[in-house]
Amino acid sequence: MSNSSTLDASAQVPGYASAHSSSAAELASLKIGLRAALRQFPDFPSPGILFEDILPIFADPALHESLIRSLELHILEAYGGQKPDVIVGLEARGFLMGPSLALRLGASFVPVRKQGKLPGPCVTQSYQKEYGEDYFQMQEGAIKPGQKVIVVDDIIATGGSAWAGGEMIRKMGGDLLGFIFILELEFLKGRDKLPAPVYTLLSGQA
Ligand SMILES: O=P(O)(O)OC[C@H]1O[C@H](OP(=O)(O)OP(=O)(O)O)[C@H](O)[C@@H]1O
Ligand SMILES: Nc1ncnc2[nH]cnc12
Predict the structure, then answer these.
(1) I need a surface site. Which of 94, 125, 127, 143 has the fewest CB within 10 A?
(2) Average pLDDT of 71-76?
(3) What per-residue confidence (pLDDT) applies to 4?
(4) CA 131 to CA 187: how far, in whole Å?
(5) What CATH code would you report for 8-202?
(6) Does the CB atom of residue 183 touch ligand 1 within 6 A?
(7) ipTM of predicted complex
(8) Ligand 2 binding pocket includes 38 (Cβ within 6 Å)
(9) What are the Phosphoribosyltransferase domain coordinates in residue numbering (predicted)?
(10) What is the residue with the minimal CA distance to atom 1 of ligand 2?
């Protein structure tokens, strides 16, 4: 498998424990700045929805760097040292961090798009989300059987979008290592729908 490698060689060497705790401290400090940047908009895009806006993170290069570094630190520590072959980003906000995270990790980036946007034969999956029904697509063959895949997006609400992405990856024979989000709307219990470990960087609406 291209790009697959193990990272736990560091576990064999003296000093690993202190390296581990220093990355935990780095992660904790990065999260404080990221959390403070988020904005909320009541009743968008429809009444009753409290919309979480992550765009201020990308407006500030230091916060943008903090975000990508935080996600990289998580991936290097999690998944038993397995590195992903592919980062899959969900349209549209998963495209904001997916490609730069993939580049950091030496992984491929593959998009999941809304129906009708991708050329050529596609895999299609319908899904329900917090405010409606939609269809996602991936190009056939975008994931090779056995490739290790991580799905990224900004927010998990009902979990419908991430579930649909996971389904298409499963149909193509991918090995789902996990799902990563900036924020979780915990009260919607979206993570219960997902078939692989879920990591959210920041705590969200409980
Ligand atoms: O867990 P769920 O209930 O599926 O909701 C989460 C999804 O909803 C939002 O995207 P949206 O579909 O609004 O599209 P956009 O990113 O293109 O604006 C968000 O960026 C996630 O992709
Ligand atoms: N409350 C919310 N804020 C931002 N994006 C969302 N996607 C689904 N629910 C959302």
Answers:
(1) 127
(2) 94
(3) 34
(4) 15
(5) 3.40.50.2020
(6) no
(7) 0.97
(8) no
(9) 67-175
(10) 51
184 lines ligand 2 (CB under 6 A): no
Q: For residue 164, how far is its CA from the centre of ligand 2 (angstroms)?
A: 16
Which tokens is 128 given?
Answer: 């329900």
The Cα–Cα gap between 83 and 129 comes to: 29
Q: Is 164 in the pocket of ligand 1 (CB under 6 A)?
A: no
- Regarding the beta carbon of 157 and ligand 2, being less than 6 Å apart is answered yes
Q: How far is the CA of 39 from the centre of ligand 1 (A)?
A: 16
9-18: which pairs have CB atoms within 8 A and are 24 or more residues apart?
11/81
Q: How does pLDDT run across 89-127, given as a tens digit for each residue?
A: 999 999 999 999 999 999 999 999 999 999 999 999 999
Cα of 131 to ligand 1 centre, how many Å? 9
Distances in Å between the Cα of 22 and the Cα atoms of 11, 28, 71, 101, 203 are: 14, 10, 15, 21, 21
Q: Which range, 1-15, 76-90, 129-143, has the best average confidence (pLDDT)? A: 76-90
Q: Can you give the pTM of this predicted structure?
A: 0.90
